[in-house]
Specification:
Layout: H1 3-17, E1 25-28, H2 31-38, E2 45-50, E3 54-58, H3 63-69, E4 74-76, H4 81-91, E5 96-99, H5 106-115, E6 121-124, H6 128-133, H7 138-159, H8 168-181, E7 186-187, E8 192-195, E9 216-221, E10 223-225, E11 228-229, E12 232-237, H9 243-262, H10 269-282, E13 294-296, E14 303-307, E15 320-323, E16 326-329, E17 333-336, E18 339-343, E19 348-350, E20 359-360
Helix pairs in contact: 4-5, 7-8, 9-10
Length: 361
């Protein structure tokens, strides 16, 4: 299926689902959902989907761009988009218009609501498009794979340059520079580089601190390429790792492999999470694992499903998720190992090609 026809099919699926939700239309304003339904990459747009058609509203800055990216009709607003959207709602005599409550500002909601014709109303619709996005098409899976491979190549090109005395911020900047040179649009999130005791901070921001001999270094990085995200965490060690470092690393690696082995269509996300925690418990490290085992990713770096111990969702074939258990010990450091995988009927495909051994530099 060509990309244009894929977007057409997605909008058709939304249009066909309006009646069951007792809606005349759905107004989509969140950028990732807009891109999923239209391919539009601009910063200002709204999509009005009705049973008969879908129209993208944007401003003159994106007239040429929208014409190149979007296969549905495009309305270029001369003023605020809300005026043209309200006029379209009145012209089409729409009554119940769904909107994304978690994705729309109160100010924008109030502005549109005040302009609606008599008897028309805005109805909150939560998570509909996000749910559709959880199952990746073959084209999406290929785009995620490309993003993963770019991310891994950037890591390999950078790690050979790592030396004691290098600043965390400089290492993060080099990783992001390399991924951009390899084709990424930008990092999928603020790259995490944390050395020594700071590696015990799961979401540490890079600082001016220098990498010291005898210390762990956590590198958590992701790229966005063609709109799709990747995510990977690997560990470095400067010098010869001591027995405690080796044992802790082995515990996290075994936990990650156990969780990956549990991934398949039909299992609960909580089951996958439990497999990682079960392994860490045998090492006496279960309390040092302070976050979930993973999350979905795609057009956003964090998407459903969440893979945590209290989550009740089930994995489905075509989902792209991360598997990333970690152990964080104050005064010692932290270790996390993360891959991106795609769920299949009988297991999963590991997209991340990078070796998972502790990288000694």
């Amino acid at each position: 299926m060509a990309r244009g026809s894929e977007f057409d099919a997605r909008r058709a699926a939304v249009a066909s689902g309006l009646a069951a939700r007792k809606l005349d239309a759905l107004l989509v304003s969140f950028s990732a959902n807009l891109r999923y339904l239209t391919g539009f990459t601009g910063s200002n747009g709204n999509l009005l989907v009705t049973a008969g058609q879908a129209v993208l509203f944007t401003d003159p800055r994106y007239q040429i761009q929208a014409g190149q990216e979007v296969s549905c009709p495009v309305k270029i607003a001369k003023g605020p988009l809300v005026l043209d959207i309200a006029a379209a709602i009145a012209r089409l005599r729409l009554r119940r218009i769904g909107y994304e409550p978690a994705r729309m500002t109160c100010d924008w909601f109030d502005s549109l609501n005040a302009r609606l014709p008599w008897k028309a109303s805005l109805q909150p619709v939560s998570g509909w498009i996000e749910e559709l996005r959880t199952i990746k098409s073959a084209q999406e899976r290929e785009l995620i794979r490309r993003s993963v491979e770019t991310n891994s190549r950037a890591f390999e090109q950078t790690v050979v340059r790592v030396r004691a005395g290098m600043k965390e911020q400089d290492l993060a900047a080099e990783l992001e520079y390399r991924m951009r040179r390899l084709g990424a649009e930008k990092p999928a999130f603020d790259t995490i580089v944390a050395a020594g005791r700071r590696s015990a901070l799961p979401h540490a921001q890079p600082t001016q601190a220098r990498l010291r001999p005898g210390g762990l270094v956590v590198v958590d990085m992701g790229a966005i390429q063609d709109g799709y995200c990747s995510d990977m965490t690997r560990m470095l060690f400067l010098g010869a790792p001591a027995a405690r470092v080796k044992r802790t690393y082995r515990a996290v690696l075994e936990a990650q492999l156990a969780a990956i082995d549990a991934v398949r269509a039909g299992v609960t996300t909580a089951h996958v999470d439990r497999q990682a925690r079960r392994v860490l418990k045998t090492y006496g490290l279960e309390r040092a694992f302070v976050h979930s085992t993973g999350h979905g990713l795609g057009l956003e770096i964090h998407e459903p499903p969440r893979i945590g111990k209290r989550d009740k969702g089930r994995l489905q074939a075509g989902m792209a998720v991360t598997i990333e258990p970690g152990v964080y010990l104050e005064g010692f450091g932290g270790i996390r190992i993360e891959d991106t995988v795609v769920v299949t009927a009988s297991g999963c495909e590991i997209l991340t090609p990078t070796n998972k051994e502790l990288r000694v530099v």
